[in-house]
Amino acid sequence: MGKGVETENMAVHVMKVRKKILGDEHSDTLNGMAMVGLAHSLNGQWDDAEKLEMQVMETSKTKLGVDHPSTLRSMANLASTLWKQGRWDDAEKLEVQVMETSKTKLGVDHPDTLTSMANLASTLWKQGRWDDAEKLDVQVMETRKTKLGMDHPDTLTGMNNLAFTWKGSGKEIEAVRLMEECVQLQKLVLGVNHPDSISSCTALDIWKAEQEDVALLI
């Protein structure tokens, strides 16, 4: 039995116990349901994940309100499941709601707000909407630089995301320059063997090789 299945079975057991003792609408029960939904999603059981996450979201809206952090988290979880299925339009609708509500309730520079902006940018990127994605990516990166510092892991993730957006939109030179900066900082902050450092370095090598191939053809 794989670890994913074991984790899922354990989460289901906890959820059932909480439902029996606390009821379907208790916050601890909803958290348990959310964990089962996450386990389903990680195991590729999209329909099961979506049903649970939808239930958690709707109950959270009713019990806690649409702008409660737990409700926003449940919406983000559902959006993530839709995103993994390639249902960009459905994911986008939820992500816009989460972002706008987070801006109002938490502020534009709150970490949760910035995460919601990055999630929406990723969805727009998947749809090939480079300009819209770029605006969000730039805002996320610059705000994280100011709030967290240039060498914070979240800032580096923001740099990586923007570099990929620029690459997708055809801004090859800007993308390479930003990724070079990102790789340098990731190696210093995270280490050369960190998965993020390796991933960024691999992308940079590929992009530079592509530029060299183009130069040879000119």
Account of the protein in words:
- This protein has helices at residues 3-22, 27-42, 46-64, 69-84, 88-106, 111-126, 130-148, 153-168, 172-189, 195-217.
- It is mainly α.
- α6 runs antiparallel to α7 and α7 (130-148) packs antiparallel against α8.
- The mean pLDDT is 88.
- Tell me roughly what share of residues is in helical segments: over 70%
Q: Uncertain runs with pLDDT below 50, 5 residues or more?
A: none
Record field, number of beta strands:
0
Q: What percentage of the residues does DSSP assign to strands (E)?
A: under 5%
Summing up helix and strand content along with how strands pair, one would put the structural category as mainly alpha
Distance between the termini: 55 Å
Q: Summarize this, please?
A:
This protein is mainly α.
